[in-house]
């Protein structure tokens, strides 16, 4: 949590005290806990019985994922920023967007991958634009995903950058009975 986040929580607590929802003693105890908190998870219980939306980490507009000589994987529940910078040297990248929280319609992915493969697993119904990916000694495949340079009504991914000495695969999630990959 940043100092600005703590300040927002303190303002909510102060408003709750002003509305008579907290006594002075409860306010002081909660405020001290907020000032000592390092994560949003520590603060959420302090606000759970108060009206209003729960506090959460702000949605990042941009994030960078980096790896060297190792694989980089993201799957399950994670919040996807509007712009994702992916840098990999001698390692594979697999980003699974099927169970993610995507708060905007267009996701931009900038690749800088050398000597490794990249797999992007998109949710069903999403579209992708891979026209601005420079392939150097590798191949690009788009499987069961509609390609379009223009966003449609649903979720749209714009992939650009460089993929050197490896492959780029954009696909939907595969299923066989209870298994998914």
From TrEMBL:
Record-annotated DUF1707 domain positions: 2-51
Domain of life per record: Bacteria
Pfam families assigned: DUF1707
Protein name: DUF1707 domain-containing protein
